[in-house]
Specification:
The structure holds two protein chains of two kinds. By secondary structure, chain A is mostly helical. Helices cover about 90% and strands about 0% of the residues of chain A. Chain A is elongated and about 55 Å long. The mean pLDDT of chain A is about 90. Chain B is globular, with a radius of gyration of 23 Å. Chain B has ten helices and no strands. Classes of the chains: A mainly alpha, B mainly alpha.
Chain lengths: ~80, ~230
Amino acid sequence: MLTLLFDVLLGLGLVVAALGALWSRDLFRAVVLFIVFGLLVALAWIRLQAPDVALAEAAIGAGLTGALLLDAVGHLRRTSRTEDS
Amino acid sequence: MNRRRVFTSVALSVGLAVMLGGAVLTRTVPPFDLAVDLAKGIPQSGVTHPITAVLLQFRSYDTLLEIAVLLVAVVVALALRDPQGAHSAAPESVMVDSVITTPVLASLTLMLLPLMIMTAVYLLWAGAFQPGGAFQAGAVLAALGILWRVSGRRIGPFATNRWQHVALLSGFAAFLAAATSTLLFGRPLLAWPFSYAGLIIVAIETVLTVSIGISLLGLFASAPEPVDKRA
């Protein structure tokens, strides 16, 4: 019962995080939600009894891709700021 | 216009959901059970963790090609790098804006350095009998490199450093050498002799860990550096 509740909440959280990442107007917010989404996907993989995939998802999907996207957001902010001034 | 786009995306989602549901409902059960076959093959693989056995023994050809794809991706990323940025005389000056320099981050990175290396080695070693392996260990190494770079320490010009090129290539080269060396002894490609299989797999995974770590870090480090027009 408790695991079912957890699974339902996890599924809902996945949808909310994905929608938030897609619809967020602020890029930084979208990236943070994307990282949250990646971590939730890793949890989902653990619930599906695939710890190998979960490890890879957490490290690459959430961690590395998140870092790359954050770097890109910072890059975009800086270029727009220098063009403004 | 906006309403039409919403309508189109809703229609597409519903169509996809119907197709997925149909596929799930009409799926046929395959006449064999892969999990059972895999469990039978584990004793011959040289490792005891089924995922590692699949990745580096039974379907190692796929993994070999995956490493090749990763290598190509990094080479393309390096090639797309801004040539001006790669050869600029004072890279530090353009880096100042993109790094966070706080004493906490700097000391934390130094403290995390041995811990993360230990975690990577543990993941690599654990891959033989429980979840873990070269990809996860390499990702931890890459994360360490990214922390190192974000906290303001230079990694060096990635596109022009010969040692980094060697490290990038080493994973695929070692894997390919191991894969083709079996041909010399009259065995099929990638068919490692049973008595050495475990040793060969661990050796390949070790080289792959370093190579994957450097590759993933290369994707990050070769991202174009900010163009600072105020300087």
